[in-house]
Amino acid sequence: MEIQNRDQQETKLGMNRIIVIVVDDVESCRDTLRHLLSSMGLVAVSAESASAALACLAEVDLTDRVVLVTDINMPGTSGFDLSFEVKKRRPDSRTIFVSGDALELARVANFASPYDVFLEKPYTLESLNTALERALNFPNSSSSETMTWVSPIKSRSGID
Questions:
Q1: Residue 119's Cα: distance from chain center in Å?
Q2: Which of 15, 88, 104, 135 has the most CB atoms less than 10 A away?
């Protein structure tokens, strides 16, 4: 999958792009999320598995910021293990873990990086935006900030 440079893509963080890699084994979930992120002006790509996500990551320029938005429970490699592998390759990356199982999110939170964000399904566009802002605005790894949990606002416009 080729990550294309979008001329209209400018970020408040400078000239570097923000690349969001959406990983979910459910096609409708990942495609909907990718379209939403693209409509927000972000460069978003989707992957159906950890191996596909790592292939996408290999194409990301080192000057770009990477946000991994991943479901936790997937066949094969879990979202948590994928995040660990992405952080080995790109220590400055941020992860937004997504799950419909609050207990699973809580279990992962015990082992996750303090810079990770947790988003419970179903979520709204507003809670997704909050999660992205928090992930992107975390300071560098020398900070004492702690992880963030974005509670869902359950409504009819939530994304399952």
A1: 10
A2: 135
